[in-house]
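Review form for a predicted model. The reviewer records the input and the model, then writes brief findings.
Reviewer: anonymous (R2)
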Amino acid sequence: MYDVTLAFGDSITQLGYEHDNSGWVTHLSNRYVRNMDVLNRGFSAFSTRRAKDIAHVVFPVRKGAYANGSPVDGSSGWFGWLTNGARNIKQKVFKDDSLATNSWPENKRPFPARRSKVQLCILFFGANDAADPRDYRHIPLAEYSLNLRYLINMLRNPESMYYAPETRILIITPPAVGDKMSKETFMKYGWTYGPHKNVVTKKYAEAAVDVAKDLDMPYIDIWTAIESRVQESRKHLAAEPSLESRKDNGYDGYDEFLIDGLHLNSKGNELLYSLLVETIDKNWPELHPRHVTTSDYYE
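Model under review:
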């Protein structure tokens, strides 16, 4: 398999595969087509607490680590039985098939035959953690920070079964919230209050940035990116009498980037994608598509 970029987050990540909404994960997949696989592990309504509960099936177990008493390195246990069995079957079925075994020179095969690595892990949580305390998704701010550190530690601690020193980690803050849009959306589904507030989400965004800075990790502050553009747009509208008709839609300008007050619309997705490309190229130039080529898999 090719190496992997792993996008682990909530519904904003899950919906990142919606091509008709210019999903940010779709854009990232297209950027790395034929060079690196982009896995979408977005889970609607998940907080960092729930992310901790399933991280053991999202993050790959490191080679040589033990799971349920069996080493997960392809040498024994059920995984070894499966891989060795598949290898034996391949040898029997394709031993006389030149198309299956000999048509591609060893250094030009289109599919790499080696264990893939997670080159980049994107952690994108916080929108649900920041929900109203009456909401089951709510996670206290202090716990949110600790949970982020826990997920990062799973990949950074040498004693962890998921230790991956080669994996780069990128933190994305929760995006800004359009309070009026969000409340209107949730009340359509029977809620009596709007569970998301921009002023609260801002604190979670700041906490995510603090964790990233403390651990010396790159991050994307999508909350500030959206908020600054919304405020700049409002100033522009206020200064242009000819744009008066655009001022009173009731959503304070957040509808420019959000589809329902919480999730990104096409413009919001495109903004996040542009920040992703900028951040990746700045911090890890080796992950630029022209440097991540299939030839790397045969060295």
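Findings: The chain has a mean pLDDT of 85.
Further findings: The first strand starts at residue 4 and ends at 9.
Recommendation: see findings above.
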